[in-house]
Specification:
Elements: H1 2-12, E1 16-19, H2 24-27, H3 37-48, E2 52-56, H4 64-69, H5 96-113, E3 119-123, H6 139-153, H7 156-163, H8 190-218, E4 223-228, H9 237-241, E5 246-251, H10 253-260, H11 264-269, H12 278-289, E6 294-299, H13 317-327, H14 362-383, E7 393-396, H15 399-407, H16 416-429, E8 434-437, E9 448-451, H17 459-467, E10 471-474, E11 502-509, E12 516-517, E13 524-534, E14 540-541, E15 547-548, E16 550-552, E17 555-557, E18 560-562, H18 564-577, E19 589-594, E20 597-602, E21 608-609, E22 615-618, E23 622-623, E24 628-632
Parallel strand pairs: 1-2, 2-3, 3-4, 4-5, 5-6, 7-8, 7-9, 9-10, 10-17
Antiparallel strand pairs: 11-13, 12-13, 13-18, 14-15, 16-17, 19-20, 20-24, 21-23, 22-24
Helix pairs in contact: 1-3, 5-8, 6-8, 8-15, 13-14, 16-18
The protein binds beta-D-galactopyranose (GAL).
């Protein structure tokens, strides 16, 4: 069926095909008995139709014979139990045996296919961390962790002092005594857990680097990428991405909504469209992770199988999600998967084809999409649009900060990622485009810089914030910890006190039913609030006398989590103050500017009327649910 598949892909407008990412048991059915013929035929067949191939290294699925030979490859869970064979991602990143085995298979593959004309990119492994697989408590991990601690802290006294081990007599006499952060009687030392997270994150990066090195050597000139996930922060993505050419991610908007959303109202409202900011947030995040180069390498084509419930997308969403990725700058958008497999774990997960090879419903929308892409390409060519103006707002996204808050949330309704996404939503509701960038990014071009989860402040970021003339919004808890997760000696917000004279003297977390309001300005705070000592006058005062929101020139310190409506009006005012043009939108409409074009999307349940000046090249001002429009703004 392969030649037929390849022809049908080409006819549909597909140009890039990813294959091979779980194929180890077929590439090497027994140790050293390699069988690459089938993959050679597959790649040749795709090539014959002019399709480009992304080859996945198969290291997410060590085969049975390998696990039987070396059971120590298996990751170990918190109770000391090895994770079993029978699905995927069962390996431990710290297993040196596994690292060698991976190098062996990757080198073989790279030598066999590295120069093939069709192979234009490689994907390392598959979704590092999926199914909670970053952390392993194996013996190999323990040995490597002690080594890592030695390098980071230099002496055991330093480690004891950085972690505050004098508390509860947790002091160690040598690195050989340092244990795994698991199975303790009650809460583990947060600094210990943070160190283990950092270590585990570094293990992912070094594991990935081994593959990258071989691929670069035997397959020069090809892009190397990895497929990251949605709502996933269990390792520092910037570190792995530093070795890659492109960041790609796997986008399942309906699955994420049902799995990750907190409110049933949201789940109901966006059941068949996904949350309007879910894909966009990740597109912007991975554009930052990939230093500008990013793809969606897996896109939901219909119902999936893995969320608590798996509804079908609203008709139109397949086309909408694809154009949304383009509008945020994706180089490639690829569906998972071509054909629904009739067996095993994902048999209820749709593809573009049904198991019997007839077309599934996504295909009709892809035909329409292919026509849209022609219209857009033609328009860009004719109009000579070359607008390169980027978004006016930058969000600093900090993986370690996110982790610090997860390790010590101080309130179980505090969602670190959720808070960043709430602020993002407020910007997107105001029709404003956002870049999401690391702490060391160049921030010169922005009018508003949002720092929402930088819990320990990086010195490069501090310098940028000290010298910028942009407005800077510092969220609660930013700067509240040292790099080792303790309270800074000058109290929170620590180093940020060089930007604005505020000291946090008390923090409180609140259950959802407790909402604190201010007297005049209508601020509403939930979940988290800080009491501030400052010579600055607060911009508002809570009913119990605590100050709310402090400002010093272009620096704004927000000392609590605002509720949705309150956050929206607060953010809109900050955007206006920063001189950013806002386009207030209903919460189902989203817009994104790209190369002088404006893309508009309706995620909402109702028909909406767009009132934006420009020439419509696709669609019209009235947008039904799931519909899109593209306008030429003529600002090229
Ligand atoms: C991704 C994964 C794919 C497939 C897909 C199902 O997490 O990379 O292999 O499992 O989800 O939606």
């Amino acid at each position: 069926m392969w030649p037929d598949d390849a022809r049908r892909m080409r006819e549909l407008g597909i140009s890039v095909v990813r294959v091979g990412e779980f194929s180890w048991s077929r590439l090497e059915p027994q140790r050293d008995q390699f069988n690459f013929d089938w993959l050679q035929r597959a790649v040749d067949t795709l090539h014959a139709e002019g399709l480009e191939v992304v080859l996945g290294t198969p290291t997410a699925t060590p085969p049975k014979w390998l696990i039987d030979e070396h059971p120590s490859i298996l990751a170990v869970d918190e109770s000391g139990q090895p994770r079993g064979f029978g699905s995927r991602r069962h390996y431990c990143f710290s297993s040196n045996i596994y690292r060698q085995e991976c190098q062996r298979i990757v080198e073989r593959m790279a030598k066999a296919f590295g120069q093939h004309k069709a192979v234009t990119a490689w994907q390392t492994d598959n979704e590092y961390g999926c199914h909670s697989t970053i952390i392993s408590y194996s013996n190999d991990a323990l040995v490597a962790f002690r080594q890592w601690c030695k390098q980071r802290y230099g002496s055991i006294d330093q480690l004891n002092s950085d972690w505050g081990n004098v508390f509860w007599s947790m002091e160690y006499r040598s690195f050989d005594e340092v244990g795994l952060p698991c199975s303790a009687v009650t809460e583990l030392n947060p600094a210990h857990r943070l160190a283990y997270w950092r270590f585990s994150s570094d293990q992912v990066a070094s594991f990935n680097r081994l593959q990258v090195k071989l691929l670069r050597q035997h397959s020069p000139g090809r892009d190397i990428l990895h497929n990251y996930m949605g709502n996933f922060t269990e390792f520092d993505h910037y570190t792995t991405a530093a070795d890659l050419d492109i960041a790609t991610w796997d986008n399942y908007p309906l699955g994420f909504l049902d799995r990750d959303s907190e409110s049933d109202t949201d789940k109901k409202k966006w059941l068949r469209t996904g949350h309007p900011d879910s894909s966009a947030f990740h597109h912007d995040l991975y554009r930052g992770v990939g230093r500008g180069r990013w793809w969606v390498i897996e896109q939901q084509p219909g119902p999936v199988n893995w969320a608590p419930h798996n509804p079908a997308p609203l008709p139109g969403m397949i086309r909408l999600w694809a154009l949304e990725a383009l509008a945020h700058g994706a180089e490639v958008m690829s569906w998972f998967r071509w054909r629904q497999a009739p067996w095993a774990q994902e048999q209820n997960h749709t593809g573009l084809l049904l198991p019997d090879s007839t077309e599934d419903e996504a295909v009709a929308e892809i035909r329409q999409l292919t026509a849209d892409l022609d219209v857009i390409a033609h328009e860009l060519k004719e109009s000579g649009n070359a607008s390169t103006q980027g978004p006016p707002v930058a969000f600093i996204f900090d993986y370690a900060g996110d982790q610090m808050l997860r390790i010590q949330p101080q309130g179980n309704n505090y969602s670190p990622l959720g808070w960043v996404q709430d602020i993002y939503t407020a910007c997107r509701n105001a029709g404003v485009d956002v870049d999401i960038v690391p702490a060391d990014a160049l921030l010169d071009s922005y009018q508003l810089i949002v720092v929402a989860n930088s819990i320990s402040i990086n010195d490069t970021l501090l310098k940028s914030l000290q010298t910028t003339s942009a407005h800077v919004l510092l969220g609660p808890r930013c700067g509240s910890k040292t790099d080792e997760l303790s309270i800074p000696s000058n109290l929170p917000p620590g180093k940020l006190q060089s930007l604005i004279p505020v000291r946090v003297t008390r923090v409180e977390s609140l259950p959802d039913f407790a909402i604190e309001t201010t007297q005049c300005e209508n601020f509403e705070v939930h979940r988290w609030r800080e009491k501030i000592d400052s010579k600055l006058q607060p911009q508002a005062t809570f009913n119990d006398g605590w100050g709310c929101y402090y400002r010093h020139n272009n620096i704004h310190y927000l000392n609590g989590c605002l509720t949705e409506t309150s956050l929206q009006s607060f953010i809109t005012t900050r955007l206006e103050e920063a001189g950013i043009l806002i386009t207030p939108l209903t919460d189902g409409i989203r817009i994104r500017k790209h190369k002088g074009l404006l893309f508009a999307f309706n995620f909402g349940p109702d028909k909406e009327q767009l009132s934006i000046d420009g020439r419509f090249i696709i669609g019209q001002p009235e947008l039904a649910p799931g519909e899109i429009a593209v306008l030429n703004l003529g600002d090229g």
